[in-house]
Each structure stands twice: as C-alpha cells, then as structure tokens.
Design a protein that fits this description.
The chain is an alpha/beta fold. It is about 35% helix and about 20% strand.
C-alpha cells in the first residue's frame, strides 16, 4: 500500500488527453490546472482522497509523455520516477488511440508488475469504438472505461474499476511482529534517545510496532538501552521478544540472554515490506567489499542529517573499518535518481522503509536485483557487522537454514 498506508494511483498518458480533468473529477476538487494547451501539467501533482470501501488513496497526475523537447524529456523523466511509487495506474487515452506511446507505457507497467486500467476520455468528442474495447480486452485483458471528464458527473464506474484493479495489489493485512508472540506474552522495545530522536515523540516504526503488539494483546515495555539492567530477564514475565533500534545492537545483544529472541525495528520492516529473501542472500556481500568498491544507500524519505545519522555517518564508518577506508558511498533519498548506473555498486543498502510501500521498495530495488547486485536492509547490515546476523534474523525466517550464515 501507499505511503502512510495510502494506495498510490498514477494517471499516465499523452499531453492534452485530459488527465488533470479526470483527476479533478475523481477528487471532486480543482486539484490540477486544466487547459487546452498541451503540456499544462509539468511536475507530478499529488492529491489525497478517500474511496469508500477501499482505502485512502493518493492520486498522482503526471505530465504528458509525448513531448520530445528538451524540457519535455525532463518532464518524462519525472513521470518515470513517479511510476516507481505507484500501486496501480490509469492510462488515459482519447480518440481510440492506443499506439506506440501507450504500448510503451503498458510494457513499463507490466515489467514492474503494476496493474492498470484504461480510461478512454473525451467521449463527447469521440466515443469508444467497440473494436478498440475488444482489441484491448483481447490483447491485455484490462478494464476499459469510456468517460468524459467534462460531461459525466457520476464517477462510480471509474471508482469501481479502480477498486477492482486495486484488489489485485492490496495484501491481506499481516502483523508486523505479533505473530512472533502469543497473547499475553511480553515484548520489550529498546529505543535510544539521541540527537536523531524527534523531540517529544516516537518515530513511526516504534509507534507501529507498539500498536501492532497491543492489538494482539501482547504486553509491551519500552526502555532506553541504558535501563536494560532493570529488566527481570529470568523472571516468569521476562520478555519473550526484544526489538531494538539497530544502532544499539552491540549494547543490547550483550545484555539480552541468548534464549530470548532479539531483532530490530528495521529488520521487522524488512520482512513486512521488503524483499526479505533477497536481503538474506545479499547481506553477506559485506564480506566481499574492498577498497574502491562502491556502496549505494537508499533512504525512502528525506530528513535532516545530524552527526549521529546512522545511514550516512555511522554505517559507512563501520563498513570502512571492516572492509577498507576507501570504500565509497553514494546516498539517495526519496525519489531522487541514482547518481550512476546500479551496476557500478558492489552492494545496495535500503533503509527500513517506514515511509515507503512494499511496491515502492520493490521498484526501487528492482534494477539492482535484476542486475545481480546484492541488496540488503539497514538493520540487517548492522547486525552482520556486529556478528549477530543469524541471531536477529532467525526469529523471522520461516526456514532458518536459508539465512545468510555468519
């Protein structure tokens, strides 16, 4: 699902096909500027909306992809990046035209396993021909809706088609960590408070894990690493599971008895959202890093970087201490493009992804996995560097024998 548990629906197509008018019709608001002038929409426009019976959604209106001018190519690149965050897509066509431009879009969506539907817009100017509907149905087996964003006031057929398409990608809700415990059992969440910690509140993964465990009637305790000495580790109600911030792995692992399951927030998210098996296989590539190798660190969102930043400062220092001082690091955040071809990297490390969707993480890492570049997760990399990789992944692995071994 989409960022902050929203489904992301992207509108794609040629200039002047009425994507912005369609977005306004779907949201019931003048979200996007509408004009007869081709190329009115430049950067992607995002608008939140609630579809009854489905979920909160974010619609993404994009620039037309048939502008081959230098500026148009930049707009098309922005559209391509926006596709990476889409859960489903709407290809907007007019005048019964589904030619090279639309076929290229369809192939891109197929390659990324993004389901889509087609809206034939401006039916008041030229209605959808039965031959067009039959051709698309026979070749692609996708819904085709005939619509006019300027005349039709009932968006029910559109919303029904979006809902039906979305059902293909909405996963059955799964617990984050509560499946690791029985109701009434005790989980301890270890939360450092340093310059990276927000003032007066917890960060999203900590809140999500606590709520997940409480919803499944588990007992939840929160503590800072320095207070772990006060935990009754051998009492009847000792924690059955300890979930820590990854940067505190060394301190926490030295205190938590080996018969108590230990993992981290980031690794829990890796199992919940990421390509967990790829991470398990890719993490041991840390041992193959040498001087002049290059590592890519991907963060799902941007944030202020401090001296305690784990991804940009601490992790590179730990890796260089192990592999060589001349290991090079590149960092990208949000939807920023990669600074170089993915094949230039010996390892790709993704953050926990608390602000990303499984689809976004999949799409972000797809070029690396297809190219055979090892991928891992921030928490799993830190665990490997601390020599506890097997211990902290074992509680989450269906078959422990498939873990990366250390």
């Amino acid at each position: 699902m989409g960022k902050e548990n929203k489904l992301h629906v992207i509108l794609l197509g040629r200039r002047n096909n009425g994507k912005s008018a369609l977005l306004n019709a779907l949201t019931g608001q003048q979200t996007s500027i509408v004009s007869d002038t081709p190329g009115t929409t430049t950067d992607p426009v995002r608008r939140g909306h609630e579809i009854p019976g489905l979920a909160p959604v974010t619609f993404i209106d994009t620039a037309g992809i048939d502008d081959h001018s230098p500026l148009g190519k930049k707009r098309a690149a922005a559209t391509a990046r926006a596709i990476e965050e889409a859960d489903i897509a709407i290809i907007v066509i007019t005048a019964n035209r589904f030619d090279t431009v639309e076929q290229t879009l369809a192939r891109t969506l197929d390659e990324r396993d993004i389901p889509y539907l087609v809206v034939h817009n401006k039916r008041d100017q030229q209605p959808l021909l039965p031959a067009t509907r039959e051709r698309l149905a026979a070749a692609r087996d996708i819904p085709v809706i005939d619509y006019s964003a300027t005349l039709d006031t009932d968006t029910t057929p559109l919303l029904d088609a979006i809902t039906a398409t979305a059902r293909r990608v909405i996963p059955t809700p799964a617990p984050l960590a509560a499946d690791l415990l029985a109701p009434g059992e005790h989980a301890l969440l270890v939360i450092p408070v340093d310059t990276e910690a927000p003032t007066g509140r917890l960060i999203l993964p900590q809140v999500q894990l606590a709520r997940d465990l409480l919803d499944h009637h588990c007992i939840v305790t929160l503590a800072r690493p320095g207070e772990l000495h006060a935990i009754p580790w051998h009492a009847d109600h000792a924690p059955r599971l300890v979930i820590t911030d990854s940067q505190a792995f060394a301190r926490v692992a030295a205190i938590v008895p080996p018969d108590i399951s230990l993992t981290s927030f980031s690794i829990i998210l890796a199992r919940h959202k990421g390509p967990f098996d790829d991470y398990l296989r890719g993490t041991p590539a840390i041992d193959k890093l040498r001087d002049n190798h290059r590592v890519l660190v991907i963060e799902a969102c941007s944030h202020h970087v401090t001296r305690d930043d784990i991804a940009r400062h601490k992790l590179p220092a730990w890796i260089r201490r192990r592999a060589g001082q001349n290991v090079h690091f590149d960092f990208v955040a949000g939807r920023d493009p990669l600074p170089r071809p993915v094949t230039d990297y010996a390892l790709v490390i993704h953050c926990g992804g608390c602000m990303a969707t499984p689809r976004q993480i999949h799409n972000r890492l797809l070029p690396a996995t297809r190219a055979g570049v090892p991928v891992t997760n921030l928490g799993m990399a830190i665990a490997y560097l601390n020599g506890i990789f097997d211990r902290v992944t074992r509680p989450l692995v269906k078959n422990p024998n498939t873990a990366g071994g250390q």
